[in-house]
Amino acid sequence: GLPAIEVTSFVSSKWVPQMADHKEVMRGIERHPGVQYPVLTPNLQGFHSAIAAGATEVSVFGAASESFSKMNINCSIEESIERFEEVIKSARNMNIPVRGYVSCALGCPYEGNVVPDKVAEVSKRLYSMGCYEISLGDTIGVGTPGSMKKMLEAVMKEIPLSALAVHCHDTYGQALANILTAIQMGVAVVDSSVAGLGGCPYAKGATGNVATEDVIYMLNGLGINTGVNLCAVMEAGNFICTALNKKTNSKVAQASFRTGTTN
């Protein structure tokens, strides 16, 4: 029941060898009607490779921190915007929707605090260039409901609330609280990761994105109809954790497997 599933990333395998199989992954997925399958594309070369592999939606990923931008995509914020402009222009000519990410929206592993106005500035530029949605990422999971509120207030002055999403890593155990804050402020799109898997090679110590299972459980408790089958998501999480020989990071999955329930 998930409406969008990010498939892979068309980054250089030299920089991120884990993503070297992106073409094989694109060939192997089973597509369902009404579901979006976006892929990450850092530059024009990645965009063309993604389209050749069958991508119908792409995402560009910038940062609100100069240091992180240089470490993550090997260029300054300004240079990254110029690269994204090329991608977005090419995508527009092919009627390919583009989503934009802003990393380090609540803190940077190299610079520490990131001012909300910087997040708002980068978000505004991506939106004005043609990104239909801007996902604000707490890449290292240091945000709190207080800092989330201040950051969103700044960004909401520049772009419509309907074009915002949040992407919260759970390094400090604040992800669900931060997501709840965003939802209470009107944000309707939340990024998550099955079993809470993932991380970032350029953010030492950062854990994965918030577990999809935990977000769904919370939303169900709020009476929000997501249309997502929690049991099926937990089964998917169990499958991938078994394949990777990893333990799930989802508290809901851990408790459910212990007790044999999902309530």
From TrEMBL:
Its EC number is 4.1.3.4. It catalyses: (3S)-3-hydroxy-3-methylglutaryl-CoA = acetoacetate + acetyl-CoA. InterPro entries: Aldolase_TIM, HMG_CoA_lyase_AS, HMGL, PYR_CT. GO terms for molecular function: hydroxymethylglutaryl-CoA lyase activity; metal ion binding. Residues 1-234 form the Pyruvate carboxyltransferase domain. Keywords: Lyase, Metal-binding. GO terms for biological process: ketone body biosynthetic process; L-leucine catabolic process. This is hydroxymethylglutaryl-CoA lyase. The lineage of its organism: Eukaryota, Metazoa, Chordata, Craniata, Vertebrata.
